[in-house]
Design brief:
InterPro entries: UCP022079 (IPR014518). This is DUF2150 family protein. This protein has one domain. The chain has nine helices and no strands. By secondary structure, it is mainly α.
Length: 197
C-alpha cells in the first residue's frame, strides 16, 4: 500500500517529537533520553526510506520522489522553537545527521548508487577531507556512501573504526539510521517506550 503524496512525514509528526523532547528531562548520557533522540532521527529516516522504496517500486516518479524528500527536509531542518539551549543543540545534532540522509536519497533517485568504491572507502575519504577542512568534499563522499547503503551495501560501524567527532561522524550516524530504516521501514511509534513500561 503506497503512501499518498505529502503524507510520508508531516509537520505535526515532527512537532510531536519536539514537544516531547521539550517536556522531558533530556540528558544524552541517559539511555532513555538517548533513545528518544535516536527515535526522532530514525523516524525521519524511515520516511525517506519509504519514499525511496515507493520510487523503486514505481509508485512515485522521480519528480514526485524528489519533491517528497524536499518536503521532509524542510520540516526536519526548520529552526526549532525551544527555549532550552541545550535541547536545541541536541536536536541540532539530529538535524545535522539527517542532512546527509536527504542528499543521499536525492542522489540515489537521480543518479542511482555510486558506480565504484565501498562504503568504508567513501567514509574514509570523507574523514580525510574533513581533516583537510574540505567539508564540501567530505559531504560528497558521505552522500556516495549513502547511495550504496540505500542500494543494500552494509555500513559496518566496526569496519569504519573510530571517527573523530565532527560532521563526518554525525553524517555517518545519520546513514546508520538510514540503513536501519531501509531494512525495516516501519514507523517508530511515538509512545513506544510507554508500551514497554
Amino acid at each position: 500500500m503506497s503512501t499518498p503524496p505529502g503524507e510520508y512525514y508531516t509537520e505535526e509528526r515532527w512537532q510531536n517529537w519536539i514537544d516531547r523532547i521539550e517536556e522531558e528531562e533530556v540528558d544524552p548520557e541517559n539511555e532513555d533520553s538517548a533513545r528518544l533522540l535516536l527515535n526522532l532521527q530514525d523516524d525521519a529516516a524511515i520516511a525517506i526510506a519509504k519514499i525511496i522504496t515507493d520510487f523503486e517500486d514505481d509508485v512515485v516518479d522521480e519528480e514526485t520522489a524528489l519533491e517528497e524528500i524536499e518536503g521532509v527536509r524542510e520540516i526536519v531542518l526548520d529552526e526549532v522553537d525551544i527555549d532550552d539551549e541545550e535541547k536545541v543543540m541536541l536536536i541540532d545534532g539530529v538535524q545535522t545527521s539527517l542532512v546527509c540522509v536527504f542528499y543521499a536519497a536525492e542522489e540515489f533517485v537521480v543518479e542511482g548508487p555510486a558506480a565504484e568504491g565501498t562504503v568504508v572507502e567513501y567514509v574514509q575519504a570523507a574523514a580525510d577531507s574533513e581533516a583537510e577542512e574540505d567539508l564540501d568534499a567530505a559531504l560528497g563522499y558521505c552522500v556516495q556512501a549513502g547511495t550504496l547503503v540505500i542500494d543494500g551495501a552494509e555500513l559496518d560501524m566496526e569496519s569504519i573504526g573510530e571517527l573523530e567527532y565532527g560532521l563526518v561522524s554525525e553524517w555517518v550516524n545519520g546513514l546508520d539510521s538510514l540503513q536501519t530504516a531501509m531494512s525495516d521501514p516501519e514507523l517508530v511509534e511515538e509512545d513506544e517506550e510507554d508500551a514497554e513500561d
